[in-house]
Structures are given as C-alpha cells and as structure tokens.
Amino acid sequence: MDSGFGLPRGRGKANRKRSVRHSGDAASIAARISGLPPGVRESVAAGCREYDARRLRSQREVIRDVMLAAANCDTWLTLSELRSLTRYGEASISAQLRHLRKLENGGYDVVKRHRDGAAPEHPGTDGRGEFLWEYRVSRVVCGAENSGSAAGQGVQ
Q: Which of 144, 113, 146 is closest to 131 using CA atoms?
C-alpha cells in the first residue's frame, strides 16, 4: 500500500522497533546475564504475558529495583548488563540513573566507576569510549551527605 508520499505504509517503523527491542539473540543474552547473582536476575523475571503490578511499573522503578537488588548482592552493573536484564536502551537507562539522583525521585546515591580489566564493546573514535563504566545505586541516609560539609553548617 502507498502512504501517499510514494512510500510503503507502516513498514519502516515496525522494522526499527523490532531491531531495537531484540538486539541480540536469546543465547547471547542468557550468556551475559548468567554470571549475575540470582537476586539480580529474579528482580526482573516476569512470566510471559503476566498481568500484575510488575508490568505496570515505570521504567525508572524497574531500573531502581534492579539496581537496589544488585547493591544488596554487592554487584556493580554496566549499561549493557542493565540492557540485557530490562530490555531498555542504554541511553534510557543512563537517563533514568540520572533521574534517580534527584530528590523528587528518591535522591539515591548513584556511583559510577571504571570496570577494571574490561574494554567497551564499541569504543568511540574520539577517546571518550576507552573505559567501561559500571554503576551502583544505594539509598542515602537522610542528612548524612551534608553532615561534614560547609553547606550543612549554614549561617543562622
């Protein structure tokens, strides 16, 4: 069918969605997440076509729960590992991790560090992609971050 602009109707968008959602076959995804602690894997496991509260959670809530489960297992996760667990894009995951730092979204402590002995899958040509970053999210105890700083000792 013609869309009126000389292009077939509806084919491009569906193909883009499919390629983004299924970036990697099931065997490679299973291999990547098999090394993660069971508590991390279980935090995102949902049955096929299950209709429960887990499927209705926002992207930020899912990422927060996975990251807190990983922190409980003393595990740091890369964006690629989070992508494998949640099926969200790395840019979206990165944005949600930034949002988790905001007070209105919980004010979580989001820490990142270089993963030792690991190289990124697709290093950039501009020198920015030379490290593989891993992340950890933890709850911040209220008032603990300002206890020793000058901001915490404000003028009355």
A: 113
